[in-house]
Structure formats: C-alpha cells, structure tokens
Known about the structure:
This protein is of the alpha+beta class.
Amino acid sequence: xxxxxxxxxxxxxxxDGYSRHRPDGRDALGALLEMADREAAAADKRxxxxxRVAAAVVDAGxxxxxxxxxxxxxxxxxxxxxADASAVAEACAATGWCAALYAAHGRLAAYLPxxxxxxxxxxxxxxxxxxxxxxxxxxxxxxxxxxxxDGEWRTASGVDHAEWVLLASWTPGSDxxxxxxxxxxxxxxxxxxxxWDAVGLRGSGSNSVSGEGITVxxxxxxxxxxxxxPLPGAARCHRVPYPMVAAPIFAAPVLGAARxxxxxxxxxxxxxxxxxxxxxxxLASASARVHAAGLLLAGTAERADQGESTxxxxxxxxxxxxxxxxxxxxxxxxxFHASGMRxxxxxxxxxxxxxxxxxxASHGALGLDAAAGAYADAALAGGGRR
Length: 386
C-alpha cells in the first residue's frame, strides 16, 4: 500500500464484538487489503471479484457486521464499517463497494420476520447478501402463502458471490395504495445476466438478475417503510432509520477510492526534484478536500452510533455524506485532469480511481440536490439553520 500521504488512512483496532484475527494468526482485514490491492486490476478487467477476494471479505467480518447477535452476528457500529469499507476501497474500490453493501444488506435482512431471518442465517452469520431494492423493479403478485415474482432487477452488486438476494417490487397495499415491498430470494433461484459494463466500479459485478414464477413465502418479505421504524429491543445499529445511514455507507467506498487517487497521483505524476508549477497547490487542495470528506463521514457515523435520530440529524447525515462524496469527486477529477498522458494509460491507477469515484459518487443515494432539499426542510422546520 505504500507510505501514508495526506488524505490517506490508518487501520487499527478490532471489529465491534468480532475478532478480525483468523485462526492462522493473520489479521483478516490486513489479508483482505493485500489481496484486494493485488487483484484490483484483474477485477476491473474481469468485471467481478475473484472468488478468493469475496471469501476474504467474509473473513474480514463484513457479511456479519450488522447481523443480529441472535444469529451470532456482530450488530456492529457504523464508525467501524465506514472506516473498514473505506480502507478496503483504498486498495480496490470495487471490493470496498461490495464489502460495504454486503454489510448494509445484512442490516436490511434483519427487518425480515423471525422465520425469514432463520431461513437466511440458520447456517451462520457469514452470508453474502446482494440486493436490488431501489427502485422497485420486476413484478410481484400475491399468491396463497406469499408472493410470485417475475421479471428482471438491475445492478445487484456482488451478486455472483451472493447466497441470497433482496429484490423489490411494487405491490398493492391494504389501503389501496401501492407498497414498495422487499423480498429475500435464494440466489440459486435466480438467473444472473451479464449486464454490468460501466465506466467505473467495474469489478463490483453489479449485474442484473431475473426469474419467472419465483415463489417467496410471506415470512421472507417486508415493506421498505419498515426501515423508517426502529426494531424494538434491537441493537443500536437497528434502531436508526434507513435514511440516516444509507448515504454514509455508500459514501465510504468513494472516500477510500479518493484516498487511493491522491496516493496514485503523487506516485505517478510528481517528481520531487522537478515539480511543476501548480502541483504543490493541487496536491494540498485535493488532499485537504479528501481529508475533510473523511471528517464529515466520521461525523455521520458518530451521529448514527451515539446521537438522537431526529429529523434534523437524519438530514444532516444525508447532507454530509453527499457533500463528502462531491468533494471527493471534485478532488479526484482535478487530479485526473492534471495527470497528462500518464492518466490516459489503461495501467494508470489515477485513471482507475477517477473512473471508480465518478461512478460511485453518481449513486442516487449521494445526490446532493435531494440531500440539500431534505436538509433545508428539516432545518427550516426547526426554526433555524445549522
């Protein structure tokens, strides 16, 4: 990974309630970082993670990070997830993206009824769960005892290595209005379609899945509205509303990839003995923006782990995560455009980081306009601004 530079990161400590040390004595997160860094270029070409990398993500505790303790999960903190996911993304953005989402989807699956959770986690907590839940896609029809799913669902990151997939469709609600409903489906019952050929995050394997006549029992379903309500008697990570934590989780890999861009640009484009005019200012400016983005995300994690889940706090988290992603995107864009012909090489790590940050930061959860509107509504409703 090289020496630490401005905008870089440090990795230490333990997962909340989960030892990152494997039986052979090696640090599981450290092993993942090494492997992800070594396999990043290959993942980019292959357009999906290597099976060994996907297994190392599990070893490092991501799949179990938000799994309830009743199923031997970690029920961990947002601070630890954001720190570790950004660290992995600094080695390989696609791996960090999948690691963050495997963790996040475990949190979503905790909203299944108890019997549905048993279906997913009775073999153990280290279950990789992919998802395509926003926007609703495919179709769902009520059948005796559950639902029938048909159609196609796009961009399920890491689905090639998943054991389960969360899918969402519109369904009729009890009051006549339609509901955004989520279904847990074994990956083996779905067909993966090789549709992911994006500019960045190519190694995430965010392919489509399809199926016809898939029966999902009622106990493997919940409405998206349930994510707005805390789970009674649950660990802290399950007592915060989904809008408070979704954007920070998506922003964590953006932060890691931006740190990688600062590191790569310094290595590829700066010669200490012949620095060109403007390079010092660019390095200072880009690294400061990435560092500031890290501070914003640390603040969102602190609110999620320790603060009150007020409407203003939820809006602040959305605001800060979207702003952090925008700062990272702007910093990396400046670095890429100052990389000259080196950045045009397919072997350039600056180029790969630029592609990854550009793609990741464009995710709908990180939209700055929507976050700004939500923040203004909450702040003005409270009679003041922060």
